Structures are given as C-alpha cells and as structure tokens.
C-alpha cells in the first residue's frame, strides 16, 4: 500500500538476517552433536554417500532405486533420532530455529505476505513516522468524550463542545475507513489544549495499522526540513525526507502557526499542500490560529486551497491538559 522500495528492501534485509541467524544456530548445534556423538556424524556421512549411490542408479535406469533409498534412509534417520534423544538432546534439536514458523522467516506464505511481515511493515512505518514522539496513550480507545462539556457552547453556532466533538469523531472515523479509497484532508483548529494533536495521533495510528505510510511533523520541524533542502542541496538526508514529505500517504502538520512565519515559509507551505493536493496525498493540519489569521499569515492562495479541499473542524472546550493536572492532584 504505502511501502516504498527502500522500506520493502529494509524489511527483507531483516528477514535475511533472521535466516542467517537460524542457519548459524543450526550449524552450531550440529557441531555440538557431532562432538558429543561421533556416531551421529558417521550416520550423516552414510546418508550422503547413500544418496549419491542411489542417484547414480536412477541415472542408469534402476526404477527400484527410489523405493530402496527411502527404506534405507528411514532406517538411518531412525537411528539418528535414537542417538540424539538418548544423549539428552530434544528430538527437534537439529531442526531450523525460526522466529516465525509459519513462513520460516521468509516473510511470505506462498505469494501472500505473512502476518509477521505485516507486523514488520507497521513497526517500520511507526519508526519513520515521528509518531513515536507523541503520547503513547493517543488512541481512540483512550479518547475521553467527557472532557468536552455539554454546557460549553460555541458563541457563533450555539452548539456545545460535546456535540461538536461527537460530530468530529464521526468524521475522523469516516476519514480512516475510507482512506486509500476516497481522497480527503482534515483541518483541525481551535484554542490551545482542546485535543487537536491527540486526534491527529489517534488517526495516524489507525492509518498505519492499515499499512499506509504516515509522517508527522510539528510546523517548525517541517519548515526546517524544507529550508534545509532548499539551502543545502548536498544534504542527502534532508533531500530524502523532503521527498517523503511529498509522497507519504498521510502527512500531519501539527501546530501550524507556532513557527516563525515569513514569505519563504508561506511559499513553502503553499508548495507543500498544493503538491500533495495535485497528487491526491492526504494531509491533516492542526492549528491554534483562527481562519482569519491563517489567511493573513499564509497568503490567500494557501487559504483558498485549505477552505476548498479540507474538511474544516473547529474544536472548542476547556484546556484538557489543565483538567488532567487537576484530576491528577485530586487523585493524590
């Protein structure tokens, strides 16, 4: 889905390491057994010699060679098993040691990705997303609607914080469920501490669980990367990250307006959101700015793109961080 070639090869290299590790363990165990049970090595040598002999017979047209070979091999293998267990080794001691027995550390079962491969994809996407910087508890399962008061009203619409958040949650889940099929963008705005970043992180986790690539940046981080790429063409890491900013399945720009804004930043912001719109790559933006301030800081062109191509979601309510601190004090 959202896996780049470099990401795919990174995962496959990990599988190669697992296979090498398994091979090394098995080799070491064989050496241990050979040292402790010399007869075991002799039986292995006999099996090798026998296989070559019967191979020649098959080439010479001996049709009974396969049946005879199977009988003799069965006897030798039974003898090996008896030697192994009588020496105190587990019966499966010389079997390959796989981290995933289902795919035997190949990542695939037939032509289908193994469940362990899917876990590896999600792990890699998390590591590259910057989401790990956000609170661990940022998950819809932990979302508390009770933080949004039914008696806290928006002066313009007359709707309560609870009503607004209930609708917002519904839109967020629609965004997640349709991701990869419908092209959508979200714009969260409202005062400090009402849960905009938390919502973005919740969505990001859900999207990555579906194996799409997500990239999270605070606005200052994002513009630092874009500036570094612009002013230092030799910075390979910044250039790669710059490419990923434009190509990832979901880009999250958090706390827009917290950066120092000038004409360069405004231009970079427009380029970023416009390119992603052109390539139908979804973006979530959160800000403490009002829509009026947004237009003043980032030009009419950016404002036009956002108001026409994003679902605008105003969130109101008390500062949740303050409420959590008060709850914590009461508990102690």
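Q: What amino acid sequence fits the structure above?
A:
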């Amino acid at each position: 889905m959202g896996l780049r070639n470099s990401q795919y090869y990174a995962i496959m290299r990990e599988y190669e390491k697992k296979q090498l590790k398994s091979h090394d363990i098995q080799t070491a165990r064989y050496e241990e057994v050979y040292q402790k049970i010399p007869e075991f090595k002799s039986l292995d040598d006999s099996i090798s010699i026998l296989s070559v002999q019967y191979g020649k017979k098959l080439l010479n047209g001996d049709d009974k060679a396969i049946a005879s070979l199977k009988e003799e091999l069965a006897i030798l293998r039974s003898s090996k098993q008896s030697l192994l267990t009588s020496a105190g080794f587990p019966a499966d001691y010389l079997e390959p040691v796989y981290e995933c027995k289902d795919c035997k550390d190949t990542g695939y079962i037939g032509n289908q990705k193994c469940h362990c491969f899917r876990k590896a994809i999600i792990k890699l996407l998390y590591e590259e997303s910057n989401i790990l910087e956000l609170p661990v508890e940022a998950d819809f399962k932990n979302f508390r609607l009770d933080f949004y008061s039914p008696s806290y009203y928006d002066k313009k619409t007359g709707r309560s914080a609870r009503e607004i958040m209930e609708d917002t949650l519904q839109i967020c889940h629609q965004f997640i469920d349709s991701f990869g099929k419908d092209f959508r963008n979200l714009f969260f705005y409202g005062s400090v501490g009402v849960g905009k970043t938390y919502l973005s992180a919740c969505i990001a986790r859900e999207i990555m669980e579906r194996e799409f690539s997500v990239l999270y940046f605070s606005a200052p981080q994002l513009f630092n990367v874009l500036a570094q790429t612009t002013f230092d063409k030799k910075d390979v890491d910044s250039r790669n990250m710059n490419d990923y900013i434009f190509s990832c399945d979901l880009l999250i720009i958090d706390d827009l307006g917290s950066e120092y804004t000038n004409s360069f930043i405004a231009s970079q912001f427009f380029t970023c959101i416009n390119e992603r719109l052109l390539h139908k790559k979804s973006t979530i933006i959160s800000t403490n700015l009002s829509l009026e301030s947004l237009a003043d800081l980032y030009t009419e062109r950016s404002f036009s793109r956002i108001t026409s191509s994003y679902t605008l979601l105003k969130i109101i309510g008390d500062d949740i961080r303050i409420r959590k601190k008060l709850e914590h004090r009461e508990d102690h």
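Q: And what stands out in the fold?
A: Residues 255 and 287 are 5 Å apart (CA to CA).
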